[in-house]
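Hey team,

Filing this mostly as a record. A colleague (T.K.) asked me to run one chain through the structure pipeline before their review meeting, and I want the input and output archived in the tracker in case anyone asks later how it was produced. No errors, nothing strange. Just documentation.

Input sequence:
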Amino acid sequence: MQFRNDIQGLRSLAVLFVFFFHLSPSLLPGGFVGVDIFFVISGFLISSIVLAQKDKGNFSFAQFYKSRIRRIVPAYYFLLLVVAVSAVFIYLGVDTARLRLALLHADFFNSNAYFSSADTYFGASSSENPLLHTWTLAIEMKFYIFLPMLLVWIRKKWLPGVIAILTAALFIYANIGVASGNKGEIYFALLARTPEFFIGVLAAIIVRSKPTVKPTAGAALNITGFALLFISALFINENSAFPGALALLPCLGTAFIIIFPDKYTLPVLTNKPMVFVGEISYSVYLWHWPVMAYMRYYYSITEFSLGQIIIICLSTVSLSLLSYYFVERVFRKSSAMKLWIGLSILLALNVIIANSIVRLNKKVEHIPIAYTAPSLGLDSHSGSFRRAETFGDTLRGDRILLIGDSHASVMKPYLDRMGRVHNFSFRTITNDTYANIPGIPENVFTAPRFYRRYLHILGHTYDELDNCQIVILILSDKSMALYGETIADFIENLRTDQAVILFSDFPRIDKNPVRINRNFIKNQSRRNVYTKIYGRPGQEILRAVESRPNAFFADFTGSDIFRAAPFYNDTLMYYDNDHLNFYGSIKYSEASEQEFILYLDAAREYIESVVPES
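Output structure:
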């Protein structure tokens, strides 16, 4: 097909949309539609090439797949290698282990499936993942597997109708998925993104048919295309029901611009800067995100300063040019043998480093894991849940149960120490974000998989609740705000022969101190300035506690231990901005020991008063 500079300009526009969105969503709330523009362009270009070769009778599946590999894989594998090596020096502890898995999925173009299990594409943790953007390459490579089969095997006269029907059906599928609350999974789903490529395929079929359109009508459609792109970038946002029907706006906009090029708008897309940025857009896309993600991670920030934006722009341009001239262009011109040898070496290095990244990181980063991750009671918590566990004086059979969210999980060392010192045992099951108490509404959960996990853990919790006399309930202030009425109902509906001790939440910190400090002993050379955030239960929860003789509210947050938080005696007591580490939990236990035992004794006295024989 004839080379079109305007499509290079469209690529430039797409990557700039994505770049500005990733820099700050406030700059361009819907800039992520740049990815959809890329998908339409890919569908158009690839189908144009395949259909032209089919007409000439010289299409080869082997040559097609080799050309796609040559175009995409070398720069991609080079990026993964640099990201993996950089992580050894930038990442900390448990985060390196998570990145290892992401690297291995990325090596084999499975990032979209892997990231569909993350909280969300738009979440804070996702914004620090240097490989998040690789999901688009996974989608693209998978689409390229079956696209030529459709184009070659379906008869020419049937092709437009088949593609149109598939496009409509898959847009409906995506729309239903988003509407039913599966936005996180649908966003990364191949089937939900395939109709966007198909819009490009239909554009190619239309262009090849050389439609006769009046200049005024063509110009109107071209302008409409630009309008749709900018409306999408400005008014669609991360809270929109996207993808699905809403994705039609940027996709049709891109198709209109491709099908109906106009002499008045062509200069916008075909000027030298736009064409050049379009030429290196793949490298820009590859490199801009890891630069931003690593900066967010290292400095524990969500917004960039002006100086950081300048560094990001310069780094992205430098790395993109390096990748384009010394990787992309070199492999495009290499022989088949050099291509396969080079890719084999890059893949082998990637897999080796990915599998060694945790071990290599430990040689660079010397913070013990007890300061950077939860380290007690993991078998009884959330995604790694296997069974309820017993801690404290395990030779005893006290009927005490600790439940709650991740804030309860990090208090297991607190109660374990308390139990060993004061001779009591406790059982425990905990769950991330959504405490394992009955009755949390399904619509509170951000994804169906979290609801399914909650139900699974809750099933085991019921057995523990039936057998316990004293419930220790520990929740984050976020949980208490998210489903406070459910917590209040749980307290009010406990059996009269049970007591509950509800903890007030320990303070949160505004930044991740491990990343700021880069050590577990306070580093005086780092800017360790933090704001403490105290949260208390809502009124409905406090009323439930006050109205029940078997309910007690334990508030130890005024303890001196939090005066210099996130440090105590110049030692780090948080493993992120929201959770105590093992050291912090133990020190908190020591600081509030006498007060806690008073509450535990009060709960025991209540149980004895209603069940004397116990």
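Quick notes for T.K.: The radius of gyration is 28 Å. Residues 119-124 have pLDDT under 50 and may be disordered.
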